[in-house]
Design brief:
Blueprint lengths: L5 H18 L6 H8 L5 H21 L10 H6 L4 H23 L5 H20 L15 H11 L7 H7 L6 H21 L5 H13 L28 H16 L10 H8 L3 H18 L6 H7 L11 H11 L7 H15 L4 H17 L38 H6 L5 H7 L21 H10 L23 H5 L4
Length: about 500
């Protein structure tokens, strides 16, 4: 193709080729001239070629001039005896395939303007292929989303070579549509599997891009909101997975699990995600704290609010939730360091002791040894049990409503709650609470066997206990209802 000098000349030349191809099939070879400009090293020429390809193949998709079905090889069709129309559609479908592959490569172009334009063209083709499928429907009502083309888009966004955060920010607008969001999650899983399989050590850029994309995905809260589709459809079918929030949640879970199961080259990428998860409360906060603890312990992360967050999770519900065992296992790990300040450990011991007043027996049999272990690790906190005349509930300086353990004044208080639990109705709880009356042995008591203890197990254990041995008593057998034998009352009211 002869080009006029300058971007304007290229635009006019491409425009003429575009009009010729759309006007007559005999001018189809002009497509090669258009595709050749996509390979140019000039940024402005590439942009003009991308715009031209977008208009050209967009029009061909709408006019139905691309082959529909399993695409045969070009050589087989050209040498066959089939009709000219079929040959043209197969040939043009191959040119469209080449165009899409080149646009996918341009997603990694040094110029952001070229990247953005290539992304826009590819997403236009995604929408048009959805409306005019190039694959035959297998059954009535099948929702045909151009998955292969879309995987090409997501693969370009999750580049292993360069940071795509700016382009991913442009892609966010498409995640507002339920179908693109659903297929983005599926394509991300495929991309992670492919890249981790190809690279022994996955480049950090890939994990950065993947985390940026995953963090941009948010699910709708209610089922009826799953109805906004990028690929327009006249009606919804109940058989489409993309139309059900339950399926979106499954895809969301699979997406994150595929990412988190791999060892990250830069674990600190998870800091923002984990800190936000900490604010959600419940089991999510607990699991997020576990991740933050690893970053603190192994990657020197500074997160001064860690123990404050953990302290905030201690409330009466912690003894009744299904993740109780997991919580106390992790809490025991988090508080295992002997370098923690005494005021912090005292705050946890005091908070647990206060909560223990209303806890069920199966939880108390685990919590009481837990508190005693804290006192064993931190001798400076034993002052809490060496105040026999310390303040009780009315004058206790400890502030249970204070969110900051450093301001709770726990170290000024005493563990009078454990003394109260020594009068507990369950004998094993009373015995466990009485341990503080003795000198605490240095070896800690393992709480692992007690983490999963249930009320049913305690009840079964009590039933299996043998009763006390009979005690011999010395007494005088009764001879009457009143009085002793020989007295007046006994003479008139005798036992029959």
């Amino acid at each position: 193709m002869e080009r006029e000098p300058g971007a304007a000349g290229v635009r006019r030349a491409l425009g003429r080729r575009l009009e010729a191809v759309l006007a007559s099939r005999s001018e189809a070879n002009a497509v090669f001239d258009i595709l050749a400009v996509l390979q140019s090293e000039d940024q402005e020429e590439i942009q003009e070629a991308v715009r031209t390809c977008s208009r050209l193949f967009g029009a061909l998709l709408e006019r139905g001039e691309l082959f529909v079905g399993q695409l045969p090889s070009e050589e087989m069709v050209m040498t066959g005896s089939r009709g000219a129309t079929r040959k043209y559609k197969v040939w043009m479908r191959h040119r469209y395939h080449s165009c899409c592959n080149r646009l996918g490569e341009l997603l990694g172009h040094p110029s952001f303007q070229v990247k953005e334009l290539a992304l826009s063209a590819l997403m236009k083709f995604v929408q048009l292929e959805g409306a005019h499928p190039l694959e035959k429907s297998k059954w009535e009502g099948n929702y045909l989303f151009p998955r292969e083309l879309f995987r090409l888009v997501v693969g370009g966004l999750l580049s292993p070579e360069e940071d795509q955060s700016l382009l991913l920010s442009q892609f966010r607008e498409y995640l507002d549509y339920d179908d693109t969001r659903y297929h983005t999650m599926q394509a991300a899983v495929d991309a992670v599997a492919r890249v981790t399989g190809q690279h022994p050590e996955v480049p950090p850029a890939f994990w950065n891009n993947t985390f940026t994309l995953l963090s941009a995905v948010s699910l709708p809260r209610q089922e009826p909101t799953v109805s906004s589709f990028y690929v327009k459809r006249t009606e919804l079918w109940d058989t489409w997975k993309v139309a059900h929030l339950k399926e979106h949640r499954k895809a969301f879970q699979a997406m994150w699990l595929s990412f988190l199961k791999h060892k990250l080259a830069q674990p600190t990428l998870m800091i923002d995600f984990l800190t936000r998860a900490c604010d959600l409360g419940g089991a999510l906060s607990l699991l997020a704290l576990n991740g933050l603890f690893i970053l603190i312990h192994k990657h020197n992360l500074e997160y001064p609010d860690f123990y404050r967050k953990l302290y905030g999770l201690l409330d009466p519900s912690v003894f009744h939730v299904k993740y109780r065992a997991r919580f106390f296992h992790l809490a025991d790990l988090f508080l295992s360091s002997s370098h923690l300040p005494a005021y912090l450990v005292a705050a946890f011991a005091k908070r647990l002791a206060r909560l223990a007043l209303t806890a069920p027996p199966e939880a108390l049999l685990m919590v009481l040894p837990f508190i005693c272990n804290l006192l064993r690790r931190h001798p400076a906190c034993r002052v809490l049990v060496h105040r026999p005349h310390g303040p009780e509930l009315e004058a206790d300086p400890y502030d249970p409503g204070e969110e900051d353990p450093a301001q709770s004044r726990a170290l000024e208080s005493s563990l009078w709650e454990l003394q109260a639990l020594q009068r507990h109705y369950h004998p094993e709880v009373s015995k466990a609470a009485s341990v503080i009356n003795q000198a605490l042995s240095m070896p800690e008591v393992s709480i692992a066997p007690l983490l999963e203890l249930t009320a049913y197990e305690i009840f079964e254990r009590d039933l299996k206990k043998k009763g006390p041995e009979p005690v011999p008593l010395e007494f005088i057998p009764a001879q009457g209802l009143l009085g002793r034998p020989g007295e007046l009352c006994a003479q008139h009211f005798t036992l029959s």
